[in-house]
Amino acid sequence: MIARAAECLRAGGLVAFPTETVYGLGVHALDRAAVRRLFEAKQRPATDPLIVHIGSVDLLAPLVIEVPDAVRTLARRFWPGPLTLVLPRSPVVPDEVTAGLPSVAVRVPSHSVARALIAAAGIPVAAPSANLFSRPSPTRASHVLDDLGGRIDLIIDGGPTTIGVESTVLDLSRGTPTVLRPGAITVDMLREVLPRVDVLTTIEPGPMPSPGMLEKHYAPRAPLTLFEGQPAAVLQALVLAARAALVEGKSVGVIAADDDEAALGELGGSDKHVLLRTIGAERATDVVAARLYAALRDLDAAGVDVILVRSFPAERGLGTAVQDRLRRAAAGRIVRC
Ligand code: TXA
Ligand code: MG
Fold it and tell me: What residues of the chain score a pLDDT lower than 70?
């Protein structure tokens, strides 16, 4: 399977494969025509650059202008793993991959299938998440099939991915290293090895630091409202909003923590117009991250009219990434309780 998939990649084909974060849709990073086909298959705007996946830091040099010491330090600590580095690119990398930007995003994934595939292919593999543009990233092979079946050449099924949200993106291409997208490698972890790390918090007008990040990337089909604040107040507001939607004759999907079942019990209950998905204990943000996108897709597939989601603690571990993805999915529909 790996040998066939590697051959397919070398020949310019589109191959979906598991990584430790989400499934990626791989393509030969130096084959412009193939990269263009990938954008078409995903219906992804050409302004949204791709991450290039390689087997080890030793294979980075041809893709970038130079490999600074900070990169070697980060690689020693976090590669292979869910950290993407943005660096000034060399002319070898096609414009199609970087959306014309002077930088390229690179990562070394740790998933055994991804590693075997990249090694067997012997080429840098550009791979965005293997979803249709604006759908949640796929965490199972079936998600890839739902979105891209018939549009791509091969899917390698490696079971559910373990992390469940996309890699941390760290921009090292200008000034202070800056986190553009939070992920499993947290700012605190990065600050253990780099003297200074900033975080992109507000999306400012003007030139886009990371074009893809402005799109409402993770949106499910039904409008999603996020309730933020103290858990008790959040659950109260969420129950009220659910009741109001039911009165309007809408069906409601709710994403909550395992701990919430008591508070939401009367909602879940017998009402067939409410679908409750609990995705882990409130504080188990690693479990919540792993199950979030599947829950969103599940509620979409069930055809609910609205999705109501409680917030999860954002201070630790994957909590920051979960908050980021939920806020994007909410696209402004955030109720502060
Ligand atoms: O975990 C992941 O990163 C997954 C797996 C498959 O590796 N990939 C992934 O790719 O999430 P994608 O294309 O869905 O997201 C890539 C992100 C986008 O937000 C994009 O804007 C940013 O990386 N990016 C890529 N190249 C960039 C660059 N040169 N400068 C700034 N941001 C860049
Ligand atoms: Mg994506």
Answer: 202-219, 268-271
